[in-house]
Structures are given as structure tokens and as C-alpha cells.
# Entry
Amino acid sequence: MKKILKRYRGFLIVLIAMLLLTAINYDLGTKALGISLNSIGEMLLIIPPVFILLGLLDIWVPRETMVRYMGEGSGLKGILLAFFIGSAAAGPLYGAFPVAAVFMKKGVKFSNILIFIGAWSTTKIPMFLFEMGSLGSRFAIARLLIDIPGIILIAYILSKIMSREEVEKMYENAKNMD
# Structure
């Protein structure tokens, strides 16, 4: 029982805070509860398909293929593939992290994983199309042309300033997630 309480203490603290908020200000508490339930509902709609696709990726794509196309010696091909996969992805950013963990298990180069996460968060195709329609093509293209080198630069800076031990520990943790 203690182990369960320790594991879910963050959730329990937030739940108690929500109950206290509701007791103090009923309208605000019910609004906060509604927003929380809506967020949980959205996550329950997104997470199962992501995990199904991850399972298929894990089984269908051999490690050697991932290493060849996105591993240490992949060069420009790995960068472009990381951008394409990240830009074509659907869903919120928290969906990218399980994919990144599978990429780590498959031996994808760390900088390519960072590029993938950066592309997922900034260069999604639907977002680009929305910006073209709403903010104009000049803005959308300018933002994209600034973001792409920025993502690559940030990925390479992060991969250089992180110690080899930290990166290896992340890869090891990803392998142990089975």
C-alpha cells in the first residue's frame, strides 16, 4: 500500500488540492475539474494509437535498418528522415517521447532524436498549412526557414554539451523499458 501511495503521490496531492479548491470556490473548482477531465480524455484518445504504432515500429523495423538510416553514420539522410518523421507526426508533443525511446532502443543517433523532437514540436505540416492560411505564406515560410536551422543547431549543441555517460544512461534506460 505504501508503494502505491508513493508512486501516485503527485496525483493524490493534485486531487486533494482540487478538492480544497472546490470547497473554497465551487465554480472555480468545478471548472478546473472539467479542464482536467477534458485533458485526460484527450490523452486517452491519443496515447493508445501512439503505443500501437510504436509496437509495430519496434517489431517490424529491424535495428539494423534504423541504424543504417538514422544511426551514427547516417549523415544528411538521418537528419532529413528525422525531420520528415517529426513533421509528419500527429498529436501533441508528449507523443514524441515514447517514439524517441523506441528510436533509442533501435540505435538512432542522439542528435537525430533531438531533431525529431524539435521537428515534432515546431515544423508539423498541418501547423504550417494553418499558418499559411491564417498568417500568410510569407510568415509561414519565414518561420519554417528560421526553425529548421535552429532545430539542427540546438540538436548538435545539446549532443555536444551532454556528457557521453548521460547519453549512454538515457539509451540504457530506453532499452530497459520493456
